[in-house]
């Protein structure tokens, strides 16, 4: 997806012009994947732009950094404010927000000094639907990837680090090369894990299932939101090990993710799921999720952070 540039980027505490946000080619993260990041969406609501679960995303950002013992030289509160400011100062009605912290320039070799501070940027820009315009309504065709997800005790799946996404690239390419919208990956034991950038849900006989975290799954914030909403609607949600064949026998399947949102899956390996159309429970959950942003679903969890406008705080260097 070609990025849609915005005027400003927050970088190490300053607001700079988009074009000026550059790094050195010897930056550590470019060579070794030593970065952590988040993907957060801001939605256009009747009360103005609202960021979805900002503090939960930034909590995960700091948790990812903790696993790698990274020294992020800003507080969670400061970075939350940077996210709000980037939506606000770029005058975005809706946005995808990408906070990233990375080992920058100055040291070579695998282990620079442990107290080295990371560079931190917050980028916000417009990003439409992730898997294609009509997919939210009609669903996606997926395959099971020939590549597995990252293995336990190698690359920690719960830490959202740059390096995690090399296997995701292989999984995505597998899907695209074979004419699918996306792929589902199995863990190294052969159980269903997740998509390259999405969690997965399966519905069978009215019960909703999703793989538990020990199957190399990112603890998705959309995943958690869907579990809470489905419980509210009275569905039983089980975090259960899912064998591959259960995908083919599902009544309904869908992906969740910040970029992907809630996307129905209409076929797996060219086998139709249900009658090949988004099912009723998927549609109910989709409606509930998007309703949070139109106001049709009451935000009883306090998930929406409305962005105030600070005309006087624009700090351009
Ligand atoms: N699994 C993976 C591996 C993953 O990367 C994401 C988010 C999820 C599950 C869903 O998590 P959450 O966003 O908290 O509901 N993937 C991000 C990056 C996608 C990209 O292509 O870049 C995202 O959706 O922002």
Which class do the helix and strand fractions yield?
A: alpha+beta
Order of helices and strands: EEHEEEHHEEHEHEEEEHEHEEEHE
Average of per-residue pLDDT values: 96
CATH homologous superfamily label of the largest domain: D-amino Acid Aminotransferase, subunit A, domain 2
Q: How would the global form be characterised?
A: globular
List the helices and strands and how they pair.
Blueprint: E1 8-11, E2 14-17, H1 28-32, E3 35-37, E4 40-45, E5 48-52, H2 54-67, H3 76-89, E6 95-102, E7 119-125, H4 135-138, E8 140-144, H5 165-177, E9 182-186, E10 192-194, E11 199-204, E12 207-210, H6 221-232, E13 237-239, H7 244-248, E14 252-257, E15 261-268, E16 271-272, H8 280-294, E17 304-306
Parallel strand pairs: 8-9, 8-15, 12-13
Antiparallel strand pairs: 1-2, 1-7, 3-6, 4-5, 4-6, 5-17, 6-7, 9-10, 11-12, 11-14, 14-15, 15-16
Helix pairs in contact: 2-3
Bound molecules: ligand PPE.
The site of ligand PPE has 15 residues, from helix 6 and strand 14.
Task: Looking at this protein, list some descriptive labels.
single chain; 317 residues; D-amino Acid Aminotransferase, Chain A, domain 1; D-amino Acid Aminotransferase, Chain A, domain 2; eight-stranded antiparallel β-sheet; binds ligand PPE
């Amino acid at each position: 997806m070609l990025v849609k540039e915005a005027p400003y980027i927050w970088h190490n505490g300053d607001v700079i012009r988009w074009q000026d946000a550059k790094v050195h080619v010897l930056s550590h993260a470019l060579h070794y994947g030593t970065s952590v990041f988040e993907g957060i969406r801001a939605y256009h609501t009747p009360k103005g732009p609202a960021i979805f679960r900002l503090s939960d995303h930034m909590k995960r950002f700091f948790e990812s950094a903790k696993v790698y013992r990274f020294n992020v030289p800003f507080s969670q509160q400061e970075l939350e404010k940077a996210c709000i400011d980037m939506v606000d100062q770029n005058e975005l009605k809706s946005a995808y927000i990408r906070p990233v912290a990375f080992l920058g320039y100055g040291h070579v070799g695998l282990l620079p000094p442990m107290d080295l501070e990371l560079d931190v940027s917050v980028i916000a820009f417009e990003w439409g639907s992730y898997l294609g315009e009509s997919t939210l309504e009609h669903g996606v065709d997926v395959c099971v990837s020939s590549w597995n997800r990252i293995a336990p005790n190698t690359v920690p799946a719960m830490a959202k680090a740059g390096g995690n996404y090399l296997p995701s690239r292989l999984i995505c390419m597998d899907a695209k090369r074979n004419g699918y919208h996306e792929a589902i990956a199995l863990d190294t034991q052969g159980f269903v894990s997740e998509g390259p950038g999405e969690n997965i849900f399966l519905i069978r006989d009215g019960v909703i299932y999703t793989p538990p975290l020990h199957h190399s799954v990112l603890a998705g914030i959309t995943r958690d939101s869907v579990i809470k909403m489905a419980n509210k609607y009275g569905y039983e949600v089980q975090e259960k090990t899912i064998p591959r064949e259960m995908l083919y026998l599902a009544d309904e399947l869908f992906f969740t993710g910040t970029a992907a949102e809630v996307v129905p899956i209409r076929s797996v390996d060219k086998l139709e799921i249900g009658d090949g159309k988004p099912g009723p429970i998927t549609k109910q959950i989709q409606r509930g999720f998007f309703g949070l942003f139109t106001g049709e679903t009451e935000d009883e969890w306090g998930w929406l952070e409305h962005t105030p406008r600070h005309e006087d705080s624009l700090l351009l260097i």
